[in-house]
Every structure is written in structure tokens, then in C-alpha cells.
């Protein structure tokens, strides 16, 4: 970890007498502050703070380390900026974490555009379905689709992720169309393993409705479920961005247009507001720009009026 930043964190902890107070001053998560303190104690080879329920106080080793950290920060402040240095020019490597579906369908194009705009920058995409520890795994930015944010991380809103219920014509020909959300409980629904109990939640005429679903196939990667649905395995709930083409081509049919599956937020998550690199700022700005573009990030079509939907169901 960066010793200069660790020194700054330790000085602020000592001055504020509180981990939470230091996190607020530095614009960091409390977890990040704790991580820097732990690393500083490892470097010092000694415990630097007495911890009580009310306040932190310095040990003898902590007082000596504090003096060294202050000298280090004074020296750093006196160092001149190298001639020709461009602090605002995006450069260097960014490690970005994302799910496979989002990276393949959306981020690959955005990243390509970013690298074209900023030739001094580089990106290492880390693909996976699990939530990563940004500090431990040295991730600069995680792109997540969720309504359950980690309060220890900085979250920049990027957009909204709408979903749609769909199935292949072959499945519907064999098993019939669900006419209401409750009918999904009797169909073979392809479910996402990470969601635990399989409850699909909908906004139906302003009312929140939850439907228990299940079937013969579940997976922890949405692209697998999408491919299986196209082959006629069952009904799936998929992000609009992932299925727009398949629906347009007739390989899948959108179902229950009057019922909107619960929307999720799309966020760029990072560990600290302190000293955000120019490359990370530029990438976040581009992500906000592209997620606002329907050509890059499609959203669910406007739903019909509830009375129209009910009338259609009665005559179907």
C-alpha cells in the first residue's frame, strides 16, 4: 500500500482521535481507514493505538510513528512537481470489476471508447459474479447492478437496470403463455442462484407483487440462463440490455408487459474520494454519459395503462 497515503491517514486518525472522524475528513470508507492503519502497524512492528469504546489514544510507538509521518508529509509537500507533469491527464492502469454479462454486452464497447480517448491509460477487466473486496483485491472500480449498496464504499449512480420476463416461442407453444404474474408459479422458470429464495418481484399498477418461482435449471451467470431460454428451456427474467436483440429478432418473446420487474440501480463503486486518479474520474464520467444513451443502455418500454392491460387479459 502507498506509505505516503498511509502516513496521512495515521496523522488524521491521531488528530481526530476517531476512525470514523478520520474517514469523514479523508472522504474514505471506514474500512479503508482501518486497512491503512493495520498496514502502518505492520510496518512499524508495533501497536500504534490504544483502542477504547470512547476514544483512541497513541501508544509510545504511536507517538514516535506520528512524528515520522508528519516529517514524511512535510518533505512530500516540499517536493516540486516534475516539469511537464500533467496531473489531470488520464494515465496508468485501472482494475475494473464487473459481471460477465455486463462486461460482454456493454462495458467492452465503453472501455474501447475510453482507451481511444485516453491512449496513456490501460484497463484490466476482472470478470466474475461475486462481490469483490476492492481494497484487498486492488480494484479501482467495481460496476454493480444492485439495490443493496455497501455503506463503506463510495457509490456513483450510473443508471437504472430494467428487466423483462421472456421465453422462446417454442416453450410458449408447448406450455402456453402466462396471463398474469401469478401464473409464473406454475411454469418452468430459470432462476439466478445468487438470489437465494427465488421470488420475482413486480410493480403491478403501482402495487408491489412477489411471486415464488422455480424450475429445473438455475445458474450463477445470467448469460447461461439467457442461452437456455433461447433454446426453449423455460421462462427467464433478464436485463433489458441483454435481451433486446433476441426479442427484436423473434428468438424470445416479452411477456406480461403490464407487470414491471423490480428495477435495480447501476453504480460505480470505489473505496475513497481522496486523491481519485484522473483516469478513474474520466472513466466514471464516460460511464455516466454512455449509460444515459438508449443506444448503449436500453430501458424497458413504457408499460400500457393498467386498465388496458386488464382488458387485454380478459379478452385473451
Short description:
The chain has helices spanning 3-16, 19-26, 30-44, 60-78, 100-117, 169-175, 222-230, 240-248, 278-291, 306-315; strands at residues 49-51, 56-58, 92-98, 121-127, 141-146, 154-161, 163-167, 189-192, 199-204, 207-212, 218-219, 235-239, 253-255, 259-261, 264-270. The chain is of the alpha/beta class.
Protein described:
With 316 residues, the chain is an alpha/beta fold. It folds into three domains: 3-78, Orthogonal Bundle (Arc Repressor Mutant, subunit A); 92-160 and 264-291, 3-Layer(aba) Sandwich (D-Maltodextrin-Binding Protein, domain 2), CATH 3.40.190.10; 163-262, D-Maltodextrin-Binding Protein, domain 2, CATH 3.40.190.290. It is built from ten helices and 15 strands. The chain has helices at residues 3-16, 19-26, 30-44, 60-78, 100-117, 169-175, 222-230, 240-248, 278-291, 306-315; strands at residues 49-51, 56-58, 92-98, 121-127, 141-146, 154-161, 163-167, 189-192, 199-204, 207-212, 218-219, 235-239, 253-255, 259-261, 264-270. A hairpin with a 2-residue loop joins β9 (199-204) and β10. α1 (3-16) packs across α2 (19-26), α1 packs across α3 (30-44) and α1 crosses α4 (60-78).
CATH topology (level 3) name of the largest domain: D-Maltodextrin-Binding Protein, domain 2
The strand line-up of the biggest sheet is 4-3-5-15-6
Strand content: 15-25%
Largest sheet: 5 strands, mixed
Distance between the termini: 64 Å
Structural class: alpha/beta
Give the fraction of residues assigned to helices: 25-40%
Radius of gyration: 25 Å
Secondary structure: number of strands:
15
